[in-house]
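Human: If only I could read backbone structure tokens as easily as an amino acid sequence. Underneath my words sits a plain record pairing an amino acid chain with its backbone structure tokens. Take your time, and here it is.
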Amino acid sequence: MKKILIAISILLAGNTLYAQETVYPAPAQQSVIFLKNATIHVGNGNVIEHGTIGFSQGKITVVGGASTPVPADIKVFDLQGQHVYPGIIAPNTNLGLVEVEAVRATVDDNEVGEINPSVRSIVSYNTDSKVINTLRVNGVLLANIVPEGGILSGSSSVVQLDAWNWEDAAVRTDNGLHVYLPRLVVRSNPFGRGAGIGDDAIKSSLERIESLKKFFREAKAYLAEEKHEETNLKFEAVRRLFSKEEKLFIHCELVKEMLVATEFADEFGFDVVIVGGTDAWQIADLLKQKNIPVILNQPHSLPVSQDDDVDQPYKTPAMLQKAGVLFCIGNEGFWQQRNLAFNAGTAAAYGLSKEEALSAITLNAAKILGVDKITGSLEVGKDANMVVSAGDILDMRTNNITHAYIQGRELNLDNKQKQLYERYKYKYGLK
């Protein structure tokens, strides 16, 4: 009987192993790799035709033209005119914090309470999310993982999307705290953000904003003291905000709300970033003057005001570019991040150049998130985070990612969707 139970246990264990995911994080780069005969889109606006790029131990070592010397006895890939791009960065997402939105047990992006600066999204980031691999196949290699809930939700962190756990994934931890301003507009929709509708909603929203300012004033006074009889964890959690080691990401859409965001920068000296910024084009000169960057959310949407042009969300990136405002293009949610390249492609059709649109999802995002010294463009000394596409990565008709590298490690581009495609091809005799 004992032998039978052992045999069954081994059989079950074998089936379990067989059923596990076969997409593993890639090992560290061992050999030097060169990609040649490629169209290299650096990410800073420059394009190198028939270019050559080399990387070793996870870092880019060479970027040049066709005449760039290639050392002997190393791995060289002739891309035959394919395009090489920096890895796309998702600047505002709950990727890895939510798996199935309708199943509460898989949702970990929202904390109870109004003011939670000590919440750290990075420690809840799930590297085993099935969604991650579906983003990499569209060129998204890094993401800023953002918490939600309350008015001060906690800190975000930048991760790379090929890791065993959150410690491996972390590129920059706790890069900023996130504030979700309540809407300062009379709404007819009782399910909108904030409490109630009409004038009472405006009053309630202003009271919540004032309570947040009061918190920061008390925190400033607390941090100015050399010694404390008792440690206040919430005040300690915003210390790096006052020293400008972290940024304050303020989620808001309308002009009134963005003016409130500028007040936080003026009163407390915070490095403020506006997230959303639907109406940012209306105050672009002010944002430029105050050096406040903008993370634009989902441009494939209707304008917030009935008086705006129906294509205003498509035109906003070009208007910010012309005004000299630092901005990047983002998307809401988690699985939606796979469309980032196409969001940038739409902006390119409405006033941005192709390279400006590319910068809006690579180098600009890296600058805003504080990781531009190590990623965001294909320059010597930066991490070898790049993707190879057979066609234009911004065009869904030609986007075809053939290779992707994170820190020089070549990624397995398989994912759940591809596996299901192959499964049902087999079922119906189409293989």
Remarks:
- The first helix runs from residue 2 to 19.
